[in-house]
Amino acid sequence: MSNWISCYHPSTNSWHRLTTIPGLLENQVLKGFSIASIGETIYIIGGRYWYKVVGDGHDDTVHETSITVRSSVLKYETRRDTWSSCAPLATPRYNFACTCKDGKIYVAGGQTTLDSADGTCLAEVYDPTKDEWKPLPNMSTLRYKSVSVAWQGKIYVVGGFAKRGNSDSKGPYMMERSSAELYNPQQQNWKYVARMWDLDIPPNQIVNVNGKLFSSGDCLNAWKGHIEAYDEKLNMWNIVDGSHSPISTLAMCPRMQRIFCTMAPIGTQLYFLAGYRMPGEILKTRTEVHVFDTSATANGWRSFEPIEEEGEKELCSHCSVVKLDSP
């Protein structure tokens, strides 16, 4: 039940289990963490430990208990197939925003304790050449379950459950949910951006492709049936022409259960990796890969042959692109 990392090869439409995240005990699962890549190295950052317990012989229900918030950072060198520990986060956190820019990893917000529904305004940046985390100025909002993307030379932290840092309200997070904060590394300050995200439900992923921002869903519905692009001038998201896709929907396949959907940008293309639990007496998983070319003028979709496997596959929407240079 330990967390493991799968590798998908676009050139061959093939999967293989790459490695297992070390340090987890039996029945322990890592959730709410972030994965980032710099060069040929993958980083596993923060998160919280969960303990899975299957009921006794009279009850096969799986019970989950959260144990502790994690500050540790691990790096996996893909070419050498080795794991090692990095300097830990200054602030343990999970459900936080994370992105890379200029060879550094930026994290912001998230939750720092298990017994509070509040987020944090704290942010920090990691320099792998020094193996060092440095604090950044605080955001003006407490924020968690937001997403981060590097865009136009700045770091954007978008959406999430958020409220003003000086608010005394104990009620639900409202208007700030659809807002964003952007960090300017040159000026070393944050700027609040109202209504950058259309919904008060946090986004699932936002990616930068050739200077344009794209999204395909939110944390409750990872695939909304189309792709949206951000219009900076109008501060709104518009449906991309021709982006209604062949990705299986639950309405089309009511007996299938989607267990993950994530997207990864490679060049001008968006790779969508979707997995489904298949009905039947024998437990099977179906994996679909669809590609949308953002530069296409007509139908930009192409699909790969689905892959069906026996057994359980429980993936989260953590995805990172690694380009291996020839030795």
From TrEMBL:
SUPFAM superfamilies: Kelch motif (SSF117281). The lineage of its organism: Eukaryota, Viridiplantae, Streptophyta, Embryophyta, Tracheophyta. PANTHER family: KELCH-LIKE PROTEIN 23, PLANT PROTEIN, PUTATIVE-RELATED. InterPro entries: Kelch-typ_b-propeller (IPR015915), Kelch_1 (IPR006652), Kelch_FKB95 (IPR057499). It holds the Pfam family Kelch_FKB95. Residues 12-245 form the FKB95-like N-terminal Kelch domain. This is FKB95-like N-terminal Kelch domain-containing protein. It comes from the Eukaryota.
